[in-house]
Amino acid sequence: MSVLLGRKAPEFIAPAVLGNGEIVGDFDFAATTKGKYALVFFYPLDFTFVCPSELIALDHRMAKLTELGVEVMAVSVDSHFTHNAWRNTPINDGGIGPVKYTMVGDMSHDICKAYGVESIGGDSYYPAGVAFRASFVIDKSGVVRAQHMNDEPIGRNIDELVRVVEALQFFEENGHVCPAGWQKGDEGMINTPTGVADYLAGNSDKL
């Protein structure tokens, strides 16, 4: 996976199914996310195995992500029509139901390549050509602030992605960095030698 941390997130225009079920041919990442936080959530394929559990878990956290001001986009190399069919398949029949975020169709694989998450096969569990199980948290200026990737058999923890957004916003609001295990409501750390010492004096046993 390419290291995009601290760099501008690649922009794209692609066909998609919006969270309201509308199918569009020209979903514009830059226009949609301008001045907003964003989560770009790559997954291998529709109608597969680990993927629906992740996408349903992501949908279950949409109220919180929306509250945090995050635009959410799930991306795979399937077509927007296949995305739509999966959305229209009941969960009990192996579908994901009407998820409330945008699902982007990367049939050209250009988006996967731009983010450095296209599998080339080989020793990986991923077949060649699909997207890795990768997530990118992007700030309001369009810069990637976190990127995560799991191997194909290992589903992601969506609560961790929410936590990362909360930590980013905490840092932006008060300048305090977020130590290991930080959760919303915890104190931060002043990033000076004295600040580190003060924090560790009161919190090292909790780490």
Automatic annotation (TrEMBL):
Keyword Nucleotidyltransferase (UniProt): no
InterPro entries for this protein: AhpC/TSA, Peroxiredoxin, Peroxiredoxin_AhpC-typ, Peroxiredoxin_C, Thioredoxin-like_sf, Thioredoxin_domain
PROSITE patterns, alphabetized: THIOREDOXIN_2
Catalytic residues (UniProt): C51 (cysteine sulfenic acid (-soh) intermediate)
Compartments reported by the entry: Cytoplasm
Role of this protein: Thiol-specific peroxidase that catalyzes the reduction of hydrogen peroxide and organic hydroperoxides to water and alcohols, respectively. Plays a role in cell protection against oxidative stress by detoxifying peroxides.
Protein family (similarity comment): Belongs to the peroxiredoxin family. AhpC/Prx1 subfamily.
Record's protein name: Thioredoxin peroxidase
Source species: Reinekea forsetii
